[in-house]
């Protein structure tokens, strides 16, 4: 029985977890509440601030050069407890946040960082129940954020060209939600070809693209996106950003595109030593957003001084994966990451909600 279900004591029938308290729980919510259970991931922080993430196993142990900590000493404890290992070393125990999980999960491709995923969810106005399509699934980091935003009754259709990446994404999504998400569908193939076959014209609320050449998908996006719908692109380089923006302007079926990037700088807080951290998360990618106009309407062009917007063959060659610094991932590494992601889904049922 799934950890997201309970048993009705009167009838013996399986019911959604949380139904006994007056409402159904969203998928994965039960895994964020209650005491620690076997199979869960737990974040351990020692007295020096060093952090490790472990998966709890009955009879297991976490070993360091300063002793060992039995997993059984954590299982059954309340989230936020402090436990002590065999030599008196203290550890703070917490469930990893989504941002922690994304940065430590198995991956085959670079992930969309939490700072960008948060911007995408907000600036693209991803709402509960929305119909969303995305391309460039990668390791599933952005898919997890989108699924949380659309909810169980929403719809997310993800397109990925490489089966290995799709397998890694499925494993990571099922690990964090405790199983397949009811709103998620993954398809293999090129986005611009597959999306028009699977989605009716004007039926999609939001389009999210994380790919090398999003301008190639312009017609497909215009076909499936509803009037007023949002199209947001995540690109790594200035040249990609420029070409996508110019293609959108030239097409005429979209509003004037907006672009930005976010930089995150932490602060050091210790007594009177309050200052910016020496290191920061700077450029990870650009975000470019536009909206679909009604059919038959031509967008209003923003008046600006003339500038060179033509592209030659040399410019096009600059957008190859190698030229923009995209690291090629070996098939062996992809297979290993897929195995690690799938292994993370082997979480035992919650003993509190199963009989």
TrEMBL record:
Annotated GO MF terms: tRNA (adenine(57)-N1)/(adenine(58)-N1)-methyltransferase activity; tRNA (adenine(58)-N1)-methyltransferase activity
GO CC field: tRNA (m1A) methyltransferase complex
All residue ranges annotated as the tRNA (adenine(58)-N(1))-methyltransferase catalytic subunit TRM61 C-terminal domain in the record: 103-268
SUPFAM superfamilies per record: S-adenosyl-L-methionine-dependent methyltransferases (SSF53335)
Keyword Transferase assigned: yes
Listed Low complexity bias regions: 10-23
The UniProt record lists the keyword Nucleotide-binding: no
GO biological process: tRNA methylation
Disordered: annotated segments: 1-39, 322-355
Alphabetical list of InterPro entries matching this protein: SAM-dependent_MTases_sf (IPR029063), TRM61_C (IPR049470), tRNA_MeTrfase_Gcd14 (IPR014816)
A Pfam family of this chain: GCD14
UniProt keyword list: Methyltransferase, S-adenosyl-L-methionine, Transferase, tRNA processing
Domain of life: Bacteria
EC number: 2.1.1.219, 2.1.1.220
Top EC class of this enzyme: transferase
Protein name stated in the entry: tRNA (Adenine57-N1/adenine58-N1)-methyltransferase
Source species of the chain: Pseudarthrobacter oxydans
């Amino acid at each position: 029985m799934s950890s997201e279900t309970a048993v009705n004591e009167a009838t013996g029938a399986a019911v959604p977890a949380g139904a006994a308290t007056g409402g159904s729980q969203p998928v994965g919510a039960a895994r964020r509440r209650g005491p620690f259970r076997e199979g869960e991931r737990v974040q351990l922080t020692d007295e020096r601030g060093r952090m490790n993430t472990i998966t709890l196993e009955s009879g297991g142990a976490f070993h360091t050069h300063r002793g060992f900590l039995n997993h059984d000493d954590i299982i059954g404890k309340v989230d936020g407890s402090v436990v002590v290992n065999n030599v008196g070393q203290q550890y703070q125990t917490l469930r990893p946040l989504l941002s922690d999980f994304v940065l430590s999960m198995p991956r085959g491709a670079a992930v969309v960082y939490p700072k960008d995923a948060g911007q995408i969810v907000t600036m693209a106005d991803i709402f509960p129940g929305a119909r969303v399509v995305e391309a460039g699934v990668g390791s599933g980091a952005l898919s997890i954020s989108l699924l949380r935003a659309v909810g169980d009754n929403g719809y997310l259709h993800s397109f990925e060209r490489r089966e290995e990446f799709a397998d890694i994404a499925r494993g990571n999504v099922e690990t964090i939600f405790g199983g397949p998400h009811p709103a998620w569908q993954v398809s293999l193939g090129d986005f611009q070809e597959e999306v028009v076959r699977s989605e009716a014209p004007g039926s999609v609320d939001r389009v999210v693209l994380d790919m090398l050449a999003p301008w190639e998908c312009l017609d497909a996006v215009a076909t499936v996106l509803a009037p007023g719908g949002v199209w947001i692109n995540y690109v790594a380089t200035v040249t990609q950003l420029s070409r996508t923006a110019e293609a959108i302007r030239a097409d005429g079926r979209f509003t004037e595109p907006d672009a930005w990037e976010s930089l995150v700088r932490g602060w050091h807080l210790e007594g009177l030593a309050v200052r910016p951290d020496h290191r920061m998360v700077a450029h990870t990618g650009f975000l470019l957003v536009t909206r679909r106009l009604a059919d038959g309407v031509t967008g209003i062009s923003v008046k600006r001084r003339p500038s060179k917007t033509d592209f030659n063959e040399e410019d096009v060659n600059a957008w190859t994966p190698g030229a923009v610094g995209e690291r090629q991932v070996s098939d062996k590494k992809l297979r290993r990451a897929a195995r690690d992601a799938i292994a993370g889904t082997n979480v035992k049922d919650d003993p509190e909600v199963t009989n």
